[in-house]
Amino acid sequence: MKSDLQAKFEQMRNILRSLGRVGVAFSGGVDSAFVLKVSVDTLGTSNVLAVTGHSPSVPDADLADARRLVAAFGVEHILVDPGEFENATYLANPTDRCFHCKDALYTRIATLLSERGAWVIVSGTNADDLSDFRPGLAAAKAHSVREPCAEAGLTKTDIRDLSSELGLPTSTKPASPCLSSRVPYGEAITPEKLKMIERAEVFLREEMGIRECRVRHHDKLARVEVPAASVEHLATPENRAKIDAALREIGYQYVTLDLRGFRSGSLNEVIETGGQ
What we know:
Radius of gyration: 19 Å
Number of helices: 12
Largest sheet: 4 strands, parallel
Helix content: 40-55%
Distance between the termini: 45 Å
């Protein structure tokens, strides 16, 4: 391990030691899995709790992954319904939608931990996230959530490298934000839309072999994003027909393949361009 990476890693562990007992906001993704693993190694299983939000915005596959990982780590795992689907503002899907989701989740986790004594909520936020458009960070600040990776200066690449050294199966796992992130801002969020998106992405992964993909939900149109290297493969007549038939069966009337390829957070482009 490089000396600078080792220094950041040790700083993260020192932060966790100073907290004593932590409740990890655990999605099962690269960052939260790393935080959970390091928390367990640093504090012991009795001082670590994994809390996962479970709602229509969480893909079934992600929940299953989270359960398997927590079982392997040997810590207590609690599922909570953040209740964001009871929030009219969240359902209206404003540009700060993530704030309302994270605010609901951290409120539930804080209530849960307060019943157990002096526990601190920690998240998997990394140093790269601090310069990205992430309204959820404001919710974390409001709830005094600690971010040991970001505080130690660990980037996404650092976390993937360290995860590999620690033998974590998530070291190469693609990012998997909530399903609501596939719906354009201003278009209402509904469980039915999210289920359509989930089914479409499962098809692309399991039937078309596309490990990383997004199906952006534009009312009756599905805009499929895959890595640029996979666009030509999916654009063959045979594959176009398969995808079109499958997504029409799911409920879409129109299916399009985004020629620019997969772009994380592409729906934020409307914010960056002022809607142009």
